[in-house]
Specification:
Oligomer: heterodimer
Mean pLDDT of chain A: 93
Order of helices and strands of chain B: EEEEEEEEEEE
Shape of chain A: globular
Structural class of chain B: mainly beta
Order of helices and strands of chain A: EEEEEEEEEEEE
Helix content of chain A: under 10%
Number of strands of chain B: 11
Structural class of chain A: mainly beta
Helix content of chain B: under 10%
Largest interface: A-B, 23 and 21 residues
Low-confidence stretches of chain A: none
Mean pLDDT of chain B: 93
Radius of gyration of chain A: 13 Å
Number of helices of chain A: 0
Distance between the termini of chain B: 36 Å
Shape of chain B: globular
Strand content of chain B: over 45%
Number of helices of chain B: 0
Number of strands of chain A: 12
Radius of gyration of chain B: 13 Å
Largest sheet of chain A: 6 strands, mixed
C-alpha cells in the first residue's frame, strides 16, 4: 500500500529565506508524486508533479521538487519565500493506474517578516 | 475554464438533519473523488467514481454517508442523520483520463453540525 509521510507539521521561515519541505513516500513501484498547496479557506492547488524523466521538476510560484529514489523522498524547495507563500502544503503519491492519490498530513508554513 | 464547482460553500446544520453536498466536476473528466479534511485525520478519501460508477467506497465512515453520481456532470454526498463529528471540510475533485493521476480540487464545502 502507498503511504506518504510529511515529518514537519509546522514550519516558520523568515521572508526571503530559503525553504525545504520534506516528503517521504512508500510505494513498491515507480511512483507518481505531487505537491499541492492549500491557502486558508481554499481548495488544493497543484504546485508540481513528477511522473518520469528529469528528477528535478519545476512548478508554479517558483517552487521546485527533487525526486530521490534512493531516499524515497520528494522534497519541495523554494530559494526565497514570500509572505504570500504562507499556506498548507500537501505531498501526495499515486500509482499511475487510475487509483486515487494518497496524501500526507500536510505541513503548515508560516512566514514572518 | 470552470473548475470543480461545489455547493454549498458553507453550511451550518443541527444534529440529526440531513445534509446534501453537491459537486459539478470539470467537463470531460471521467473520475470523481470525495475527500474529507479534518484537523485530526487530515485529508481522507471517502469514495471515488470512474465513469459515474462507484469504484471504492471503503472510506465512507458509516452507513449515514452515501454518495451518488447520476451522470457525468453531477455528484452528491449525503449525510443522514448528521452528527457533530461530521463537521469538516468536504472536497470534491475530478480527473481526466489523459492526465495520469493529476486531480483537480473544488473549493470545498465547510460543514458545521451543532
Amino acid at each position: 500500500a502507498q503511504s506518504v509521510t510529511q515529518p514537519d507539521i509546522h514550519i516558520t521561515v523568515s521572508e526571503g529565506a530559503s525553504l525545504e519541505l520534506r516528503c517521504n513516500y512508500s510505494y513498491g513501484a515507480t511512483p507518481y508524486l505531487f505537491w499541492y498547496v492549500q491557502s486558508p479557506g481554499q481548495g488544493l492547488q497543484l504546485l508540481l508533479k513528477y511522473f518520469s524523466g528529469d528528477t528535478l521538476v519545476q512548478g508554479i510560484k517558483g517552487f521546485e521538487a527533487e525526486f530521490k529514489r534512493s531516499q524515497s523522498s520528494f522534497n519541495l524547495r523554494k530559494p526565497s519565500v514570500h509572505w504570500s507563500d504562507a499556506a498548507e502544503y500537501f505531498c501526495a503519491v499515486g500509482a499511475g493506474n487510475g487509483t486515487p492519490l494518497v496524501f500526507g498530513k500536510g505541513t503548515r508554513l508560516s512566514v514572518i517578516a | 475554464d470552470a473548475g470543480v464547482i461545489q455547493s454549498p460553500r458553507h453550511e451550518v446544520t443541527e444534529m440529526g438533519q440531513e445534509v446534501t453536498l453537491r459537486c459539478k466536476p470539470i467537463s470531460g473528466h471521467n473520475s470523481l473523488f470525495w475527500y474529507r479534511q479534518t484537523m485530526m485525520r487530515g485529508l481522507e478519501l471517502l469514495i471515488y467514481f470512474n465513469n459515474n460508477v462507484p469504484i471504492d467506497d471503503s472510506g465512507m465512515p458509516e452507513d449515514r454517508f452515501s454518495a451518488k453520481m447520476p451522470n457525468a456532470s453531477f455528484s452528491t454526498l449525503k449525510i443522514q442523520p448528521s452528527e457533530p463529528r461530521d463537521s469538516a471540510v468536504y472536497f470534491c475533485a475530478s480527473r481526466p483520463s489523459s492526465s495520469g493521476n493529476t486531480i483537480y480540487f473544488g473549493e470545498g464545502s465547510w460543514l458545521t453540525v451543532v
